[in-house]
Amino acid sequence: MTTPLEARSLIKAFDGDAVLKGVDLTVEPGTVLGLLGKNGSGKSTLIKCLLGLLKPTAGEAFVFGEDAWSLSAAAKGRLGYVPQEVVTYPWMRVRQVIAYTGAFYPTWNQRLADDLCRRWNLPLEQRAGVLSVGQLQTLGLVLALGHEPELLVLDEPVASLDPSARREFLRILIEITGDGDDAGGRVGESARPRTVLFSTHITSDLERIASRLALLKDGAIAFEGESDALKERVKRIRLTSRNGALPTGIDIPGAIHTTVEGVLAEATVTDFTPDLPARLAAENNVDVAVVDLNLEEIFVEMHDE
């Protein structure tokens, strides 16, 4: 099966300043990949390069095996994209925008579009130009989902949605990817595997829906893999001395943050192994406690180093 999205040594610079510095990323069929990164880390730039909306300075990007910069109409018909800011035809009514967009896709599922509009309470007779930011983003989701794409790329899709609409969106996304109880029924009849690239700052959403995570930092992918693997790799360790104050320069392998206060020390390590607590206890005459971190805590720790 053709790989939906792939970046090879992708570099993108603006006025000589590199935002992407050799990104390698492969999104396999059927994957829900959560893309994490701070504001300004280059997430939107990476997405646009992957989809052929920006030309890379160097490296390659592929969509279904085709060069992203020269995608065929057939490949474009297999993907859906929701940018951070949805742009549409302000003079058209919502129902007209949906009908106009649907006319471009032989696979357009009007029943699905109608169902999504109902679930999100979209005002079909309202002109698109007077929609709220949240309503406009919801319309963008309907337009991206209506033709039942094999590949769905979402750049901060829930940033402007109210809690109710956001919850409904996540439920739909779970159905799309085949993990819901009624997957494939209420969200379309396509039997094709669905692949999703989902960029967001809301880590709790990613913990709920993403099967894999990619962390973009300093212009490159700092981690890519299953979320459980990241949680097993990044831990907080607390040391309590059995014999007086601990040295301020205590050596903890893989530590990105270390604080020492008297007999207590705390460190966040990025390469935790099951044998590390015992080694630290023996080498430093300390008691060791290991604390699990959630995804938000890991994100903060890895970006504050």
From TrEMBL:
SUPFAM superfamilies in the record: P-loop containing nucleoside triphosphate hydrolases (SSF52540)
Keywords per UniProt: ATP-binding, Nucleotide-binding, Transport
Coiled-coil region: none
InterPro entries referenced in this protein's UniProt entry, alphabetically: AAA+_ATPase (IPR003593), ABC_transporter-like_ATP-bd (IPR003439), ABC_Transporter_VariousFunc (IPR051782), P-loop_NTPase (IPR027417)
Stored CDD domains: ABC_DR_subfamily_A
Annotated GO MF terms: ATP binding; ATP hydrolysis activity
ABC transporter domain location: 5-243
A Pfam family recorded for this sequence: ABC_tran
Database matches in Gene3D superfamilies: P-loop containing nucleotide triphosphate hydrolases (3.40.50.300)
Protein name: ABC transporter ATP-binding protein YtrB
Origin species: Botrimarina colliarenosi
Phylogenetic classification of the source organism: Bacteria, Pseudomonadati, Planctomycetota, Planctomycetia, Pirellulales
